[in-house]
Amino acid sequence: MTVRNRGALAALAAGVAALTVATLVACGSQPAEDVGADEAAQLATATPSAAGTEGPSVPVTTGELPAGAETVKPVRLAIPAIDVKATINAVGINKRTNEFEVPPSVDEIGWYRYGPGLEADAGSIVIAGHVDSAQQGKGAFFRLRELDQGDTLTATGSDGKAREYRVVAREEYDKTKIPLDRYFARDGKPRLTLITCGGPFDAKARKYRDNIVVTAVPA
């Protein structure tokens, strides 16, 4: 599958573009400050596009894994620091909306199946989830913005193996300025990329302005 343009990718990265929560004010609160931005950038070998410009598509373009590769799908995620124990579903892109097809249940999260699996020795493993929902309340990633450097998380794969990761960065971007080629890259050092919505809620547009991105590396 080909991701065609940056505009579609911005919605894809959000994973929660259709959220309709105006009442949960805490969801829109910002982290105290970004942490580890330089370290996160150094994990990727691809040069990110300039903010606010129409850069190239994310390096994940065909969705084809290397021939003969045995992809280990992440199936569960546990983050003790923010009380997360969530099921992970393999997801792609909604053909109708061209957006990241996050599971409809806010308790579940989605792994971008056209990117690397847990066995990969390079690239960004992308997992996105809802921050909240007007109908369902708080999502699995409601407190993602609270994670800090050094916090640990565990991703369990379809092979039954639990893999530990350590948070190195937490960043907040306007959705129009997030360097998607960096976070969806299949090159660079292996890392786990968690994405949800954040920042102020636009009641008129019925969505949050920003993305919260947490980067973790194998512990």
From TrEMBL:
Question: Compositionally biased, Low complexity: which spans?
Answer: 41-51
Spans through the membrane: none
* Source superkingdom: Bacteria
Q: Which SUPFAM superfamilies match?
A: Sortase
- UniProt keyword Signal, yes or no: yes
Signal peptide interval: 1-26
Q: Which UniProt keywords apply?
A: Hydrolase, Signal
Q: Which CDD domains match?
A: Sortase_F (cd05829)
UniProt cross-references to Pfam families, sorted A to Z = Sortase
> Which portions of the sequence form the region Disordered?
41-65
Q: What is this protein called?
A: Class F sortase
Q: Name the species this protein comes from.
A: Micromonospora parva
